[in-house]
Amino acid sequence: KPMMSPCCHDNVSLREPSTGSCSKSDAVPLYHNASIIEQPVDLVTLASRYGDMATKFITAAAKQDAPFLLYVAFAHMHVPQNHAANFTNSSRHGPFGDTLRELDHTVGTILSALEESGVTNDTLVFFTADNGPWETKCNLTGSKGPFIGKWQRTTGGGGGTGKFTTWEGGHREPAIAYWPGHIAANQTSNALASALDMFPTFASLAGSELPSDRQYDGIDLTDILLGKNITGHSWLFHPNSGAGQPSWALNALRIGQYKIFYQTAPASDCSGPKGKVQQHDPPLIFDLFTDQEEGEPLGPSHPMYKELVQTAATLSSEMADSIAHDKTSTANYKSDKSASPCCDSQHVCCRCDG
Questions:
Q1: Which of 5-14, 45-54, 87-96 has the lowest mean pLDDT?
Q2: Which residues pair with residue 127 across a beta bridge?
Q3: Element (H, E) at 317
Q4: In angstroms, rounded to a whole number, what is the distance separating the alpha carbons of residues 40 and 339?
Q5: Are 343 and 351 within 8 A, CB to CB?
Q6: Which one, of 203, 200, 186, lies nearest residue 233 by Cα?
Q7: How far is CA 228 from CA 175, 183, 185, 222, in A?
Q8: Please, which residues bridge with residue 345 across strands?
Q9: Residue 264 pLDDT level (bands cut at 50, 70, 90)
């Protein structure tokens, strides 16, 4: 395939206004298996296409009485928030609310497919997200609820405490598990869990053994989901997602109900000033059971303070050693620009309709 032209005919409208560089977003393809069926992808119809494809997949598997794993990674609620025309002005919250309604509708479509195929009681549905609100998008993002990272705003110089940060508003996500006949309805668990737990949990439910020659950060949540246990992770590290320095460093740690920060860092938002990255030695410690806002760090006189500092230091050392000695991918995901996906080599913008 020839190299994808980043600016068709050097069209000025395809250049980013802030940098003048070429925007490649117009050429993002939609794949079905190994085939490009549309380029650029039509974001207005994408959610409904996901719903239709999921329905077909579930129906086919049910007819064959075959087990299945379906992973639906929605483009919603990321910007740009394109949605079908019938959802326009369907909410009181502008494009964000309208797009959220379409997301809700699409999830409902998938659940209906399970019901109509007669496999609802045999299927675990797990709904979650990958990060908190992207606060630079102002009215095009969601709410952090009570998880506002108050210390950052009152003491840390301001800035966003959602996406990109290790504050609760950046890492704490909705998690809904649905499995009629197995998971009791209207129950809430305080167990500390992570998206890392999905892999070992699904493997366990499928009766599959994981390879023993590597370490896993996730745990099996089966007993927690089925109400047989209330204990999740006793500790969990929080890598910063771009706001801290360096990116992806393990700058925060959860131990039970406590959150330990070795570094605090804000993201940009729409509210005004943005504080600087700050190192903390000794670390800041918050009790999330009594302070969900993360506003008042515990003082050295707190009865748990010394023990938490020591435990956190030990866990950090052990994790660093684990990372250094565990299997690390040597894959190189860089590719020759000539391998850029293009549905039609005769079209410099790689355009085709699905």
A1: 5-14
A2: 176
A3: helix 305-325
A4: 17
A5: yes
A6: 200
A7: 18, 10, 14, 8
A8: none
A9: very high
